[in-house]
Design brief:
Layout lengths: L1 H33 L14 E7 L1 E24 L4 E5 L7 E2 L4 E5 L2 H29 L5 H26 L2 E3 L4 E3 L9 E2 L4 E18 L11 E5 L8 E12 L5 E9 L10 E17 L4 E3 L2 E8 L2 E13 L2 E6 L6 E5 L10 E3 L7 H7 L1
Helix pairs in contact: 2-3
């Protein structure tokens, strides 16, 4: 019985000690919280909130549209055979610049040359017969009908000569315009049929970038606007061109309009089919810019803190273009106003602030806050 009493007494002592410890912990916790009662969200002692500021400044910004597109040659064609025959010569090398009318492929032409000589001989004979009949008709030795018959025969013979010459010309495949010859699909000695693709020809002196932009930008889209383009194949190199053509239609599915910009390509670096990223400058204008760090989001709106007479004032703004770490703001913010860029977590509307650090000129607002 005595042992049971001692055991219960020990348990009771342990419980009393635990309760006392818990009470002390709770009391200390309340005491610690009580030290901040009535103090603002700033440094201990209720002093001004330390912040860093920067100036809002007017600057020139560009209304840009970004798009991706495909590079096209100014003129591009697939060279195909119009007639059947055997290739006897390909005088132009692949990748070579050629002029309009320069021969690209020569087909065997022995039969066509013979046909032309025969047609010329028949024409000459028909001409001679026609002239004799005219002379005889003037002497009343032949009827007029015979003269008409000989004239018709002569005209038919002339037409046959033209046909023979045309067939002979078809045996030479020429460049339709100045350009660069592509890869050759056939070799000398090969027999080709009509429609066989032989090579390609591209005029790359000027190239076209074909891309589309949303129709909401159509109001500011006019020929002559500046366009810059980049390609992964050339790293950070920027190619400069201008808008040359705008489609007369808007795609009803994508609600975009097709645009073509032209780029000078004297060095021949740009090729047809290249994938390009383009930036189109629609307009340049003046805008008020602040560092991106100064812009805070709340729901669908945005705001900044402007420093006036040592106090922070919350200003609702609308954001616009972003350029090199700065953002355009539209609202009750003036040129040279000091806006908070660091310490924003502790700033409240109307709170006293103290400037720290050096983030550049902060205008009149900065001096007033000091």
């Amino acid at each position: 019985m005595q042992k049971q009493f001692q055991w219960a007494l020990q348990i009771l002592v342990v419980l009393v000690i635990a309760a006392a410890a818990a009470a002390g912990w709770v009391w200390l916790g309340y005491a610690g919280d009580g030290e901040g009662d009535g103090a603002p969200d700033g440094p201990v002692g209720g002093g001004p909130t330390p912040v860093e500021v920067a100036s809002a400044e007017h600057d020139t910004v560009q209304d840009l549209v970004q798009a991706v597109g495909t590079m096209l040659a100014r003129e591009s064609v697939e060279i195909v055979a119009e007639v059947a025959g055997r290739i006897v010569e390909a005088p132009v090398r692949e990748g070579e610049q050629v002029e309009a009318g320069e021969p690209l492929f020569l087909l065997d032409r022995v039969r066509e040359e013979a046909d032309l000589r025969e047609a010329i001989a028949e024409r000459d004979d028909a001409r001679a017969k026609y002239r004799r009949s005219v002379a005889l008709y003037q002497e009343r030795d032949v009827p007029e009908a015979q003269v008409d018959e000989r004239r018709a025969a002569f005209e038919v013979a002339e037409a046959r000569v033209d046909v023979a010459r045309s067939r002979l010309r078809d045996r030479t495949i020429e460049a339709p315009f100045d350009g660069v010859v592509g890869l050759r699909e056939v070799s000398p000695g090969a027999y080709i049929e009509p429609g066989t693709q032989l090579t390609t020809l591209d005029d790359l002196s000027v190239v076209r970038l074909d891309f589309s932009i949303p129709e909401r930008y159509l109001g500011g889209l006019v020929p002559g606007l500046s366009v810059t383009a980049r390609s992964l194949g050339f790293g950070d190199h920027v190619f400069e061109g201008t808008v040359a053509r705008i489609s007369s239609r808007v795609d009803p599915i994508t609600r975009s309009v097709r645009v073509q910009a032209e780029f000078d390509n004297e060095e021949g670096r740009l090729r047809s089919g290249m994938f390009m990223t383009a930036r189109l400058v629609l307009a340049e204008r003046e805008a008020l810019m602040v560092p991106e760090e100064a812009l805070l989001k709340e729901g669908r709106g945005s705001y900044v803190y402007v420093i006036e007479d040592g106090r922070a004032r919350r200003v609702e703004v609308t954001s616009g273009q972003r350029v090199d770490g700065r953002v355009e703001v539209i609202g009750d913010v003036g040129d040279g106003d000091a806006v908070v860029v660091a310490g924003l977590q502790r700033v409240r509307d109307g709170a006293d602030v103290r400037l720290v650090g050096d983030t550049g000129e902060a205008g009149n607002g900065n001096m007033a806050a000091q």
